[in-house]
Amino acid sequence: xxxxxxxxxxxxxxxQTLANRLESSGFPVETLPDASEALPVxxxxxLDVLIFGEPDDGANFLGLLWxxxxxxxxxxxxxxxxxxxxxxxxxxxxxxxxxxxxxPTNITELIERINDAVSRGSK
Length: 123
Hints:
The chain is of the alpha/beta class. It has helices at 12-24, 38-43, 58-71, 86-94, 107-119; strands at 5-8, 29-32, 49-52, 76-81, 99-102. It has a five-stranded parallel beta sheet with strand order 2-1-3-4-5, covered by helices on one side.
């Protein structure tokens, strides 16, 4: 069985497409359309990887990242974004985000990053 993944993105079509591609590659995937719904799912699950699409509110999103890493320090967080400031990316990396990839992303590259994160013990 592959690593358990939660994908969070506001864009329903992107969310479903990415989930389908990851599932067809052997990963069990859960999806959420709203980052504010992520904490209860994270608290109740043993996730390996959390993939976030565009953050809708920088300050609240950084707070969410902090809370996630507090609850599940070993979960690997990968952010997919088409637009992000370098300051925001630096703050996210300091909070423990594993990687930041362009959106739309190359599925092969994303799968490589997921496998790398899990194999490094970031879970």
